[in-house]
């Protein structure tokens, strides 16, 4: 079994936004040369999330709006006494920051509408994404 990894870096431009990094992740999977195995995508951050869903602009706005309904920017958060970004930590904790997908016959096994979406909740800033691939 082989392993391969790469770290992607990208910038977010807004305080809250969704960035579609599907092309970059799929390019990394191809670059790995591994035809059958597992791809792990890990966003090493506590105030952003990585989800798989449709990259359509209306849905991305729906996601941001619903997250704001569920965890408003302003609330009675203890963490805001030191850092003023509790809402971003909470959303990241609930949604998660890593995903594992199979690679089968050279293709990342994902649904047609499963794009790799980074949900930025504490931008703008530079974010990293670690891609780790193992297999044959
Ligand atoms: Zn914080």
What can you tell me about this protein's structure?
It is a single chain. It contains three helices and eight strands. A hairpin with a 2-residue loop joins β5 (98-104) and β6. By secondary structure, it is α+β, with helices and mostly antiparallel strands. The longest helix is centred in the middle third of the chain and has 14 residues, at 57-70. Strands 1-8-3-5-6 form a five-stranded antiparallel sheet, with helices on one face. It has a three-stranded antiparallel sheet with strand order 2-7-4, sandwiched between helices. It has a single domain, classed as Sandwich (Jelly Rolls). The mean pLDDT is 98. Helices cover 26% and strands 38% of the residues. It has helices spanning 22-32, 57-70, 86-95, and strands at 2-11, 17-20, 37-42, 48-53, 98-104, 107-108, 115-120, 126-135. The structure holds zinc ion. The site of zinc ion (ZN) has 4 residues, from loops.
Quickly describe the structure:
The chain has helices spanning 22-32, 57-70, 86-95, and strands at 2-11, 17-20, 37-42, 48-53, 98-104, 107-108, 115-120, 126-135. With 136 residues, the protein is an alpha+beta fold.
């Amino acid at each position: 079994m082989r392993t391969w990894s790469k770290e992607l870096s990208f910038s977010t431009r807004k305080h809250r936004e969704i960035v579609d990094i599907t092309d970059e992740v799929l390019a990394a999977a191809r670059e790995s040369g591994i035809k059958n195995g597992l791809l792990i995508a890990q966003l090493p951050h506590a105030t952003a999330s990585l989800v798989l869903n449709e990259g359509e602009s209306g849905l991305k706005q729906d996601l941001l709006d619903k997250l704001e309904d569920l965890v408003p920017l302003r609330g009675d958060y203890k963490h805001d006494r030191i850092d003023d970004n509790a809402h971003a930590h909470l959303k990241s904790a609930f949604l998660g920051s890593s995903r594992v997908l199979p690679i089968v016959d050279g293709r990342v096994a994902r649904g047609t509408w499963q794009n790799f979406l980074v949900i930025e909740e504490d931008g703008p800033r530079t974010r990293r994404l670690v891609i780790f691939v193992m297999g044959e």
